[in-house]
Specification:
The structure holds 2 protein chains of 2 kinds.
Chain A: E1 2-7, E2 9-11, E3 18-20, E4 23-25, E5 31-33, H1 35-49, E6 55-62, H2 67-76, E7 80-85, H3 92-106, E8 110-114, H4 125-133, E9 137-147, E10 150-157, E11 160-167, E12 170-174, H5 186-194, E13 197-201, H6 230-244
Parallel strand pairs in A: 1-6, 1-8, 6-7, 7-13, 8-12, 9-12
Antiparallel strand pairs in A: 2-5, 3-4, 9-10, 10-11
Helix pairs in contact in A: 2-5, 3-4
Chain B: E1 11-12, H1 29-32, H2 34-51, H3 64-76, H4 85-114, H5 122-152, H6 162-192, E2 202-203, H7 204-211, H8 213-221, H9 227-251, H10 259-269, H11 299-307, H12 313-317, H13 329-361, H14 367-376, H15 380-385, H16 387-392, H17 398-402, H18 409-424, H19 429-441, H20 454-458, E3 477-480, H21 482-487, H22 489-504, E4 509-510, H23 521-525, H24 529-545, E5 550-553, H25 556-565, E6 574-577, H26 578-587, E7 600-603, H27 617-625, E8 629-631, H28 663-672, E9 678-681, H29 684-695, E10 704-707, H30 708-717
Parallel strand pairs in B: 3-4, 3-5, 5-6, 7-8, 7-9, 9-10
Antiparallel strand pairs in B: 1-2
Helix pairs in contact in B: 2-9, 2-11, 3-10, 4-5, 5-6, 5-7, 6-8, 6-9, 7-8, 10-11, 11-13, 13-14, 22-30, 26-27, 28-29
The chains are: A alpha/beta, B mainly alpha.
Chain lengths: 250, 720
């Protein structure tokens, strides 16, 4: 069985985001493999270790530096990579089209991806890929079983768990609680340097959306601390809400 | 004399002892002695051959003169052995006694063949008296050692084997038969002593009282014996004594007695450098990482295994062992590895021989592969030592500090961690998280690196700090804050106290802010050498960019790393721990205490300031200046008990073992025992571990945990 894992290169989750000329300044920002996709990579490698998957191929759409994300996945244990060269400005639609083209050429049995990217948080790409390829899709899974050409997966449902079965090929997106991604060993990193990565051009697709503006959340204001007996403190707090913070009842 | 022998005499012209008197064919001994010597040499070669199986690179042939001195001091002065008062001194007595007895035997032999040195007259009396007393001390030594092992039974000697008893018996028999011989001889000489005018003779009965005071007492034991019986007993016992002594020599390479040789080798080949982990050169081009198979260790590591006599001083001081963990430096590391090495060695030797002959004949070795495969079935890390024990270590250095033969435990554990992390990719998930954090944000907490200098604003000291990337002013010392000051809310206060103290004392410091990186201690000690070298390289680049010469480090882990390990990567700076600087500032009168703090406190020595770097006095002197009444806890200074956070264990979970508390709770209980008002330490990891420990006790509300810098700031400025 051939498994494809879609990975995205994102900003480090702890990075300090700053705007410069209305755009996100990326100087000094560390780029990492999207942590949700990392879980999908780990899931695919575990399938290989169990003997279910024969080959794990990592696909990323992005600029040349996205190669680092592919190398990380290869160091973890994926077999080979494909970099679909695409501008970072591509929206979810264009990205899904580009990835789908690359996936189609590979003809996999299973497509894995994180259910959301840590940067834009749009949660669209895996679902769009399933739509474009016409494959069944299970979202936000926390466990996965493959037997007799069928995928059985548990996913988070409101207040409980939903178990779904689909035929392969299928697109499955992972929740972080599925597994704990491994830390690549030096052995893995060295082997990754020798693993093949193909570079392909992205299929032409126009963005369907246009970002108008970026803005940062208002910076956190220092809180106030009232150290009094409860009755006095409550009165002071009420006064502060009314007169300083000027919160008006609607 | 040739085939006959000299009889005993009761008097001589001058005081003397005729070597070999009363024993027919005694000269044969000088030929027979080559048998034990040959056996010894053969056995020694067999043991040393095994050391040569170590493939790992290590250079212990540098600084020859220092090594000779080290060998001499620690072997002959027993400087390290006597650190354990009773057992150490008894070992030393036995050793010195045996040394003198062996030397005396040599002198006697020389005298026998050549007549030189002339040990007659007063020279004989003095020489013999010294030997006699040393023999007695050796006898006392071995008897007390017997008493310690079999009657006192300290916990450290928890793996007593039959061999231990046999060796004690052997030594005891050699010494006792020696005194019996002397007693019998003197008894006969007393019987032979002439009566009447003896003024021209030295009568044995007179001078032997002084020459052989112990032998004299034994002579009295035999006073009931007839002359004939005494002479015959003497002859038989003489051969028996020689046989036992030769047995001793022959047994050295085949028994625990081998530690005499291996231990002395360890004194010569010990690590002479400061406390640093071993460097991995050219890590980018390495093809394997750490040690997976025992023969990948260096010859010195294999020698260490031979040097261990199972005295258990490591075990006695190991925080992991003493809280019920799997790790026991004596057994799970050294003795298990030794057994494994000796099981595997025959195959390795065969493989080496086959490889050599293959080079000559051009044929590939075949048969050996089979043997190697059998031996390789047992995994060093997973079966022999176990990964659990490898992760248990806190790198506190108690084992290495107390080992009488300088065995290097931590480097071995680190090599196995390196293999687990960099080769197998098998590590606790918390270690993974710490690595990822250090890799992406240059601190183990994982807070965004761009926020590294934000603590200055938070603590309201931005305007009094020379933040080099922004202010770029001149400075004398670099203030290396480290990750804890930068990101741990509790420790930011310590950073503030230090900045204010240094400013008050007029010390010019610069701070790198976001151009400072994690020192890499946790990465290195958890086995991620690659990450350590990356971080250290970034720091060295930053330091050099700003022309740093002197550095004040807040955290003892950073201090040890910058001071002792960065030179391996080319980073040479004058590195100080802040307690050294504060003690000096106080001494020079640049910091004066205005409000003495009259609290009763206990002080916790962090392992990396204490054992790793020997700084015990300066923090104490700072605290005493503050006016506190410092109560030393039972385990302090060299015997300090670790808080549990060293060796990267700060980032790993610790489960309490059945029947034990966790390491930090164990240490906290020790520190709380004298009922202090505060506990003071000098390390952010210790502060965290002990604060957590105190919170879990009923003194959690009353006893506060502070850093030395905070206490001084309070005493200098009436605030904390």
């Amino acid at each position: 069985m051939k498994v494809i894992v879609c990975v995205k290169q994102t900003f480090d989750t702890e990075a300090k985001i700053e705007l410069k000329d209305g755009k996100i300044a990326d100087a000094g920002i560390n780029l990492i493999i999207n942590p949700y996709d990392e879980v999908a990579v780990e899931g695919a490698i575990q399938l290989k270790e169990k003997g279910v998957a024969k080959e794990v191929v990592v696909v990323a759409a992005g600029p040349d530096k996205a190669m680092d994300a592919i190398r990380t996945a290869l160091a973890m244990g994926a077999d080979r990579g494909i970099l679909v060269q695409q501008d970072v400005a591509a929206d979810e639609y264009a990205r899904a089209v580009a990835l789908s083209e690359a996936i189609k050429a590979e003809g996999p049995d299973l497509i894995l991806a994180g259910h959301v990217a840590a940067d834009d948080g749009s949660s669209q790409v895996p679902t769009r890929i399933a739509e474009i390829l016409g494959y069944p899709h299970i979202n936000v899974i926390t466990s996965l079983d493959i037997a007799d050409g069928k995928v059985t997966a548990s996913s988070e449902a409101d207040g409980g768990t939903q178990v779904t079965e689909v035929a392969i090929p299928a697109v499955i997106s992972s929740q972080v609680s599925w597994n704990e991604p491994r830390y690549p060993s030096m052995k893995g990193i060295m082997q990754a340097k020798k693993k093949p990565v193909a570079t392909v051009a992205a299929a032409a697709a126009e963005n369907k959306t246009k970002i108008l503006e970026f803005s940062l959340p208002p910076s956190k204001q220092a809180g106030i601390k009232i150290e009094e007996e409860p009755d006095v403190a409550a009165a002071q707090l009420a006064d502060w809400i009314k007169n300083t913070a000027k919160v008006e009842p609607k | 004399m040739a085939f006959g022998f000299e009889p005993f005499e009761g008097a001589y012209e001058v005081a003397e002892r005729v070597v070999g008197a009363n024993v027919p064919y005694e000269w044969l001994i000088y030929f027979i002695m080559f048998i034990p010597i040959v056996v010894f040499l053969y056995g020694a070669w067999k043991r040393i051959e095994i050391w040569t199986l170590g493939e790992g690179k290590i250079n212990r042939f540098d600084k020859i003169w220092v090594r000779v001195m080290s060998w001499f001091t620690f072997s002959f002065a027993q400087a390290r052995v006597i650190r354990k008062p009773l057992a150490g001194w008894m070992h030393a007595l036995m050793f010195w006694g045996f040394l003198v007895l062996a030397a005396a035997a040599g002198v006697d032999a020389a005298h026998y063949w050549t007549g030189w040195p002339p040990i007659i007259g007063n020279a004989y009396v003095v020489f013999s008296c010294i030997v006699d007393i040393m023999g007695l001390l050796a006898l006392v030594g071995i008897m007390v050692l017997f008493y310690i092992r079999y009657i006192m039974k300290p916990e450290r000697l928890n793996d007593t084997k039959a061999e231990d008893g046999w060796m004690i018996l052997l030594i005891f028999v050699i010494l006792v038969t020696g005194f019996f011989l002397e007693g019998l001889r003197i008894h006969v000489q007393i019987l032979l002593a002439p009566t009447g005018d003896t003024s021209h003779l030295a009568v044995a009965a007179d001078y032997e009282r002084f020459a052989s005071p112990v032998g004299w007492i034994f002579a009295k034991l035999f006073s009931w014996m007839s002359m004939g019986a005494a002479e015959w007993s003497h002859r038989i016992l003489w051969w028996f004594h020689m046989a036992v002594a030769f047995l001793f020599i022959a047994l050295v390479p085949f028994t625990k007695l081998w530690h005499i040789v291996a231990g002395m080798c360890n004194y010569a080949f010990r690590d002479l450098g400061p406390s640093a982990l071993r460097m991995v050169d050219n890590i980018e081009e390495a093809e394997t990482f750490g040690v997976e198979r025992i023969e990948e260790f260096s010859w010195k590591d294999i020698l260490d295994l031979d040097a261990c006599t199972r005295c258990g001083r490591c075990q006695e001081n190991c925080p992991a062992y003493n809280t019920g963990k799997k790790l026991n430096p004596k057994i799970t590391i050294i003795q298990n590895m030794k057994a494994h090495m000796y099981a595997k060695a025959p195959y390795l030797l065969e493989a080496r021989k086959a490889a050599l002959s293959a080079r000559e004949t051009g044929e590939a070795p075949v048969a050996v592969a089979e043997g190697i495969a059998v031996a390789a079935d047992t995994s060093l890390i997973y079966d022999v030592v176990t990964a659990e024990a490898v992760w248990d270590c806190t790198n506190c250095r108690a084992c290495m500090e107390h080992c009488p033969v300088f065995i290097e435990h931590i480097p071995k554990i680190t090599e196995m961690r390196r293999n687990l992390v960099m080769w197998q990719g098998d590590m606790p998930s918390e270690a993974q998280a710490a690595f990822t954090n250090m890799e992406r944000n240059y601190n183990p907490w994982g807070v965004g690196w761009a926020l590294r200098s934000d603590w200055l604003e938070e603590r309201g000291i931005r305007d009094i700090v020379n933040l080099l990337p922004e202010d770029g002013g001149d400075f004398e010392y670099l203030f290396y804050a480290g990750c804890a000051v930068s990101f741990d809310d509790r420790y930011k206060r310590v950073g503030e106290a230090l900045i204010r103290l240094l400013r008050k004392a007029g010390v010019s410091v610069g701070y790198l802010g976001t151009e400072e990186y994690c020192c890499g201690d946790s990465a290195r000690r958890l086995g991620n050498e690659y990450l350590f070298q990356t971080l250290a390289g970034q720091n060295i680049e930053s330091f050099n960019n700003y022309g740093v010469k002197k550095i004040i480090v807040v955290c003892p882990h950073g201090y040890n790393t910058l001071k002792n390990e960065y030179p391996q990567l080319g980073g040479q700076y004058e590195v100080y721990h802040y307690t050294e600087i504060l003690a000096e500032l106080i001494e020079k009168g640049k910091l004066q205490v205005t409000t003495p703090i009259n609290s009763r406190i206990t002080y916790h020595d962090s392992c990396f300031l204490g054992r790793h770097n020997g700084i015990y006095q300066q923090p104490r002197s700072v605290l005493k200046t503050c006016g506190v009444s410092l109560v030393e806890v039972e385990k302090s200074k060299e015997f300090g008990f670790c808080c549990g956070a060293g060796g990267g264990r700060m980032w790993l979970e610790e489960e309490a073992a059945e029947g034990h508390k966790r390491i930090n709770d164990t240490r906290t209980a020790q520190l709380l025992a004298p009922e202090p008002k505060m506990i003071v330490t000098n390390c952010p990891f210790c502060l965290t571990m002990i604060s957590d420990g105190v919170k879990g006790t009923d003194q959690g509300e009353t006893v506060k945990v502070f850093d030395v810098a905070e206490v001084l700031w309070k005493a200098v400025e009436q605030t904390i």
